[in-house]
Each structure stands twice: as structure tokens, then as C-alpha cells.
Amino acid sequence: MNVWALAQVKRCSANLSLSSSWIYLGKDLDNREAVARILGEKELLSLNDRLHRVAERLRQPFLSFIADLGRMQSDQLGWWSSSCSWKDGGRSDLFLLICYEHLIDELRRESKDRRRPLLVIVEDPWLFYQLKELYAGLPDVQFYGNPWLWPACLKAVVWGIGARLIWSLRLVRNYVVQRWFWKWSKKYGQPVSPSIAFYSDLQTRCFQGIDGWRDPYLGELDAILEKAGYSILRFSPPESGGFERALAQRSRYFAPLILWLSPPSLFRSAFASWRPVWPLDPEIGGLPIQWLLLREGWLDGWRSSYLIFRVFFDCLGKLLERFHLQLIIYPYENQPWEKMLVLAARSHGVPTLGYQHGGGLSRFNLAYFHG
Question: What is the DSSP string of 255-272?
């Protein structure tokens, strides 16, 4: 079996064996099509549902590994803000890359019975080095290329810094505009001893009349609770803007979290990240994953989402100091901001209630499942 780094394929396409079967491990369709033009679509090895079967076998071991990893972390705010803890396939490729590694291991063991050599094109450089370390010294596996890691690292740093700067400016803008309109909120009234708070996503369809609110997810639950004697408060995430005037008109029951943004909080949040603690010799299903965890920690640590989630945590904490709530109700999708909500609520002794948001769940929508 011959394992080629994608960059090496582009540089040395003339040296590739056109009589080999091949597979492409990666998500970039443009690169995959470029490889197909070089090697020929007819020579592509059909995997059928093999990757799906590998994913099914590794699903629970991966969930259990992430659960154990979470118990090791001392930086809980950083951990629950990370894509690693979220386990969402749209934000983290960790599970996919682990499945690729196990798929290659299966194909390598079958290569002795295969008449034609197999050529494996690996898109991700961290996966390439993980495989290279795993099969070092084995005569039946040859590696071609030494892809650079620094371009991806540099891109993560530059994009991360740029995105954090942009989001910082947006948050300052949201604060200034909301404060401007809040000057007139006194004539609309202020919340009086609210007991139950609703996390409320800002959507045009929610605003009814001059100062009304329609909850598209919970219907008349707020009215039912008010009839039962509870006072209701709604709050929105600090990164949501564009409805400042409308929110000021609803100040008797609405408290935008952006009102509690402060310069120290924004400064701290701009440098927020996750300081990971990795296990010694990490493995899943008997195969090592050190390089893949290194990739996860490096590329994820610069995301601007850490800033947004930390600002949310700080602002909600200040709201909970202002109002003595009995319960917070929020839509449950197991996203990092929800973990910030729960952590802030727990620190103030406030219970939380999450309601399922969305339709049916895929078995590989791993964010909804636990180890």
C-alpha cells in the first residue's frame, strides 16, 4: 500500500502508477476531482458503506473517550467552549479523521489479498503523519511526501485573530446602539422581580405589534406561567444585533445581555481559548490519535467562538446578579453557549431546563449523545 500526501501528488503526478487502485481521504471536492483526472475515475476503489460501518463501530468508543477527556480538564470554561467537547461534525473533523485511520488499517490488512497495489491519497497533513508514525518500519506500507503543517497553523492564527477583532468591534457596536435606545426604556417599564427567564433568539417573526412577543418554539408557555403567578424575563445573546429599538420597547420583560458588556470582560474574552490536558498515549479502538488531537487543539484554539461564548458567560453572570431567578428555560441542542448558560446558572444556584429543539436525531449527530 502506498500512502501519498495530497501536495506530493500534485508535484509528482507523472511518477504515480496509473495501474493502481486508489482512494481519496478528504472533503475537498476540487482536490478530489483533480486527483481523479490524474489517476482515472475507473481506478477508484469502491468502499460502498465501509466508512459508515467503521463509524458505527467507533461511535461509542469515541463518545466515551471525549467524556473521559472532559473529566481531565481543569479549564472547564475553555473545554465546554471547544469544538472537541461539542462533537459537532460541522465544526470538528476529529471523529472523521479517526474513522479514516481505522479504514486505512482495514485496507492495509486486506492488501495482501489484493492483486493490484492500492494508492491512498491523504488530504489532511496531520492524518498523514499519524499514519506515517503508526506504520513506521513496515515493509508493506510506503509513504510519499512530507507535507508542511505551518500553512494550516498560520491560517488558523491569522483567521482567528482577524475574526476576534471583527467580533469585538461588532459587540462594541451592539453595546453602544443598545445603550442609546435603552435611554427611552423607562417609559416602557422595567422587569419587576422576574422569577423565570427564557433564552430568546432574536428573529423578525418574534416581534408582534409595538411591544408584543411571539415565541415560535414554546407557544403560549410564558402566558401560562404568568397566569400561574410567575413573572417572566426574556434575554438575548450579546452577539445578536439589529433589533435594538424593538428590544427597548419591550424593556418591561426583556433584558438584552449586551447591556452587561464591560471593557474588562471584552478584553479577557478576546484572549479566551482552551488549555487542553491530553492523556498519555491516547488511542481509540487500539490505534493512536496523538497527531489528530494535536491538530484539534491547535486549529480549534484560535476560533473566535471562544470570545463569543466567554462574553455570553460573563454577561449572563451579571444578569443573574441583577435578578434573582428561580429557573432559566432554553432550547437544547447541546451547543457550547448552552454549556456557558448552565455553568453561569449553577454558579448562582439557578436551575436550568432545556427543551429539545429540532426534529429527529441522526446517530452521527454526536453532539446529542454522551459517553
Answer: --GGGG--HHHHHHHHT-
Q: How many whole angstroms separate alpha carbon 328 and alpha carbon 308?
A: 20
Q: State the pairing for strand pair 232-235/196-199.
A: parallel
The predicted-structure confidence for 299-331, as pLDDT tens digits, reads as follows 898 899 999 999 999 999 999 999 999 999 999
Helices 94-110 and 50-72 pack at an angle, to 10 degrees, of 130
Three cell numbers at 204?
A: 423578525
pLDDT in tens, 281-295: 999 999 999 999 999
- Mention every residue, 6+ apart, whose C-beta is less than 8 A from residue 320: 344, 345, 348, 350
Question: What is the C-alpha to C-alpha distance for residues 358 and 287, in angstroms, rounded to an integer?
Answer: 35
**How crowded is residue 179: how many other Cβ atoms within 10 Å of its Cβ?**
15
- 343 CB burial (10 A radius; 0-12, 13-18, 19+): middle
pLDDT tens-place string over residues 151-180: 889 999 999 999 999 999 999 999 999 999
Separation of alpha carbons 206 and 179, rounded Å: 21
Q: Give one word for 367, left, alpha or beta, with left for phi > 0 and alpha for psi -120 to 50.
A: alpha
Q: What is the residue type of 309? A: F
| C-alpha cell recorded at residue 319 | 444578569
For 315, phi then psi, to 5°, come to: -65, -40
Give residue 221's identity as a one-letter amino acid code. L
Most confident of 100-114, 140-154, 170-184: 170-184
Q: Does pTM top 0.70 for this prediction? A: yes
In 3D, which of 53, 277, 11, 46 has the Cα closest to residue 146?
11
- Residue 275 and residue 200: Cα distance in Å, rounded? 31
Distance CA 114, CA 306 (A): 48
Task: Assess contact for 300 and 83: CB atoms under 8 A.
Answer: yes
The amino acid at 115: R
Ramachandran area for residue 87 (φ above 0: left; ψ -120 to 50: alpha; else beta): left
